[in-house]
């Protein structure tokens, strides 16, 4: 890689800032723009906004159109929302500006799961403008989909897949602890869950991606979620949880074909989780069991997004998913 890949960062919250800090450390990448709507960030040096510890000589702008038209860039690292219909106008604007996209929008990891028409629209538009669009992160994007797909490569046949991820939410950022309902009563949890204010976004996308990679056309994906109840008082930097209150979630997605379960994803994300880690169990020829420790959600999300950049910039145009890209890894050369 001889020329630096120039990046614009759209969304400078905790995840977007983490991505930008990692880009700033890579000799092969160069930050050329930053976009955010937060009035506390607009007009300030991007280095200070993302907590880099030094200035970058770039001011954060709220005018995305101006940044795209006035900045020579190769790719936009996009981190503004979890729902693909919500971020669709932003994605279209980026694509029409002729820029590649790596987004942490969870539903964009495999929009074919719930929004096939929108996926086709984005794919057609990206091809028209000769750019590539990818949604990725740690989950979806790696822990409960890409790992399972890769592990299946040594199997002659696959009958069933179980993927389990256990996350110690107490070590994560405040928004995530809120997202899993930590500190709520069971009644409060149930009300927020009914309004879909509490849940992890992306399990259906992961299940469908794995299934499609194996040629399984699922008839349905069923999701359930229940609270994990604290058996003793728990405390994090941000939240206190009393005994009997909610410490997080156990969310499950099950994929079926002809009423037969082919894939199940378990996500335990709660404060006080014991033995955090990831496991993949494949029933097939041969049976495979894979266990991984140490995948830190926030760090891994930034890593996946940044490490995917060279692959996306060099990929064919269109909407891509992690099952379509070459193997993603850090580019640590000059």
Structure description:
The chain has 334 residues and is an alpha/beta fold. The chain has two domains: 5-137 and 299-320, NAD(P)-binding Rossmann-like Domain (Rossmann fold); 146-293, 2-Layer Sandwich (Dihydrodipicolinate Reductase, domain 2), CATH 3.30.360. It contains ten helices and 14 strands. It has helices at 14-25, 46-49, 64-70, 84-96, 116-128, 146-151, 174-179, 186-194, 203-213, 297-313; strands at residues 5-10, 29-35, 75-78, 100-103, 132-135, 157-168, 220-229, 234-235, 240-241, 246-257, 260-270, 277-285, 288-292, 318-320. Strands 2-1-3-4-5-14 form a six-stranded parallel β-sheet, with helices on both faces. Strand 3, helix 4 and strand 4 form a beta-alpha-beta unit. The radius of gyration is 20 Å and the shape is globular.
């Amino acid at each position: 890689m001889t020329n630096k890949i120039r990046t614009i960062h759209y969304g400078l919250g905790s995840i977007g800032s983490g991505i930008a800090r990692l880009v700033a450390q890579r000799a092969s990448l160069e930050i050329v723009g930053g976009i955010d709507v937060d009035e506390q960030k607009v007009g300030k040096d991007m280095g200070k906004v993302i907590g880099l510890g030094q200035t970058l000589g770039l001011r954060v702008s709220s005018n995305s159109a101006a940044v795209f038209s006035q900045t020579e860039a190769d790719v936009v690292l996009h981190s503004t929302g979890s729902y693909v219909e919500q971020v669709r106008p932003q994605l279209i604007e980026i694509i029409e500006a002729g820029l590649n996209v790596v987004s942490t929008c969870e539903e964009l990891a495999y929009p074919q799961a719930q929004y096939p028409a929108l996926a086709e629209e984005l794919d057609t538009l990206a091809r028209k403008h000769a750019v590539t669009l990818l949604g990725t992160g740690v989950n979806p994007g790696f822990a409960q989909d890409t790992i399972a797909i890769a592990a299946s490569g040594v199997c002659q046949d696959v009958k069933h897949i179980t993927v389990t991820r256990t996350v110690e939410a107490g070590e994560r950022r405040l928004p995530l602890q809120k997202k899993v309902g930590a500190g709520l009563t069971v009644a409060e949890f149930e009300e927020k869950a009914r309004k879909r204010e509490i849940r992890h976004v992306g399990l259906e996308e992961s299940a469908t991606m794995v299934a499609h990679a194996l040629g399984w056309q699922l008839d349905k994906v069923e999701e359930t979620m229940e609270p994990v109840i604290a058996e003793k008082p728990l405390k994090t930097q941000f939240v206190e949880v009393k005994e009997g209150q909610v410490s997080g979630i156990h969310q499950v997605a099950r994929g079926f074909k002809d009423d037969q379960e082919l894939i199940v994803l378990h996500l335990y994300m709660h404060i006080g989780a014991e033995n955090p880690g990831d496991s993949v169990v494949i029933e097939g020829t041969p049976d495979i069991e894979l266990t991984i420790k140490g995948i830190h959600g926030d760090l891994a999300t930034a890593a996946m997004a940044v490490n995917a950049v060279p692959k996306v910039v060099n990929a064919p145009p269109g909407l891509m998913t992690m099952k379509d890209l070459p193997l993603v890894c850090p580019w640590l050369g000059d």
